[in-house]
Amino acid sequence: MSTYKLTPLEELRLEKKRLREERIIASQRLSYQLQYLNDNWGTMLTKGVASSVRSKLAETVDNLSSGSSFSVTPFVTKRTNPWLNLVMSNLPLIGSLSWKVARPALIAFAVRKIPSMLFGKKRKKIK
Asked: Which domain holds residue 34?
């Protein structure tokens, strides 16, 4: 018995069909992941910030309680405030978080102020 051999055109059509199916599955997976992120971004952000702060605080407390001369963070004297170290080590995270919070407020402020600056308020003259 001989097996049926596909022509090059049929092979291309099968490959095209397989790639379409893979693309559909990938797009469904991506939309599910985006929906999950959309639904849970606040919780994920809070957990990330809380775990980062907790680990830095624990590290700072361990360094202060051990009293050793070997410190994890170099060039830090004992007079430095541990909260300042915590804030400085998380400064990029704090900056990006504050920008995400402040950006909508700044955009809303600009949307209100720019047209009034360009066109001004027309005042009625009282006769």
From this structure: 9-58+82-119
